[in-house]
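Why does residue order matter? Because the sequence determines the fold. Keep that principle in mind as you read this record.
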Amino acid sequence: MSPPIDWLSRLLDMVPVSGHLEIHCFYGAPWRIGYEPSPPGELPYHVIVAGNATLEVPGEPTRQLQAGDILILPHGSPHALHDGSDVMPGPATKRPGLNLTITENNGGGEKLDMLCGRFIVERPHDKLLREYLPPLLVVRAAADDSASTTATQLAGLVTLMRTEADHESIGGHAMLNALSAAMFALALRLAGESGDAPSGLLSLAGNPRLAPALSALFHEPARPWTLPDLAELCNMSRATFARHFQDSMGRSASDLLTDIRMTLAANALKAPGSSVYAVSEAVGYQSETAFQRIFKQRMGMTPARWRRGGHASIPEAD
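Structure:
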């Protein structure tokens, strides 16, 4: 048996995320930037290096962001960032740098230094992140004495990104993108440690009583897990486990297990010479018919079509 892999490493192995840092903003107040909904498979992010910003997302309360805050929008929601005033901003100008675009204005008020980019997730695996991560995620990179190890690591990573963005060196584009991908993993780790996510994987990860079940589902998804099995791992009764899991995740343990299995199956079916029967068995299904039915429900097509390359032409999400 392979050694245990933590749930986050397993998730990012199943659903690879690449990062693209694209814009470096230098604004003086007043300023305002509006963003349309992101296409499927794209998760925008913003890093407040210096200054402050007011965040508006439809359906969410207004939030104040400050230096060190990292904002990720896993659902690709439309949003706006501004200086918090009602003053009409002047135009901003853009100029191309070697590795990213620099945008700035002539505002004379408080200065904002912000890095903006996006994370790219191969479809339809982006659906897994949308369904199990909150609509918006804000974590704070910090290097003070009271900060956690992860927050300190994240602060160091942001400093490195800022330095790399300033120095237009060869290889900088690749460096910035690699650092962005690492930032995604660290941001999720920090959010899971904080335990204040409203629901989803991060809320579950932040609940020490339920963490054993989360690890087990990601580490051994092919095992025929039952509710009593998972409840026993967490030293709970079946009813208590089911209630706490649903409250934290917003979904049942069975739902999560099915989505993990279907994601693994989708990846395995891309391998040359893959067999639908062998893949169904490998991810924990004794009945190929049941596997095909569930795969079609989750992926929108049969395993055979997916294996033939149908995943390359997935219709746009509604």
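The two ends are 41 Å apart (CA to CA).
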